Amino acid sequence: MKTDAVKVLVVDADDARVRSLTAALEQEGYLVEWCRMGKAGLERLATTSYHACLISTHLPDGSGAEVLQRLHAMAPAIVPFLLAETSEELTSAEAKKLGAYDVMGASPDQSELASLPVVLREGLEQRHLKVEREQLQDEVWEHARLLEERNAELRRVNEELKRVWWDAIAGLT
Asked: What is the model's pTM?
């Protein structure tokens, strides 16, 4: 997946962190937009299409977990990440239970910033593969349903042919 068309929304009130995240992502060709408040982020997500969203767990108007849950309901195709204030605040497993792809420290160091575009790309690729897998699974179920219908029709035609054959045999004797 090319990053030149990937749009990311950052929902965070920390200007310095947003500048760091934006710089790391824009350097790799991502298009980054930013909202300070959870409500504004949700409004933007309702009107603009994004591929990914980075959400701070602590927002001036509520928790990032609440924004994440509403985001998941309104735009399930977006790959969301939570930005935890401390490493002890939220584990990766807990973030995933909330619907996030993953959690990262809200104050990422240089190595985390350098790996952010790669992690984001992996999340987008996994989401793409999940959607593809679900589509293929739907196709398999549809083919199985059609095969069952055809088998039922063949059984009905076979029974009809047997009946006609026995009637013909009976008429000969």
From this structure: 0.69
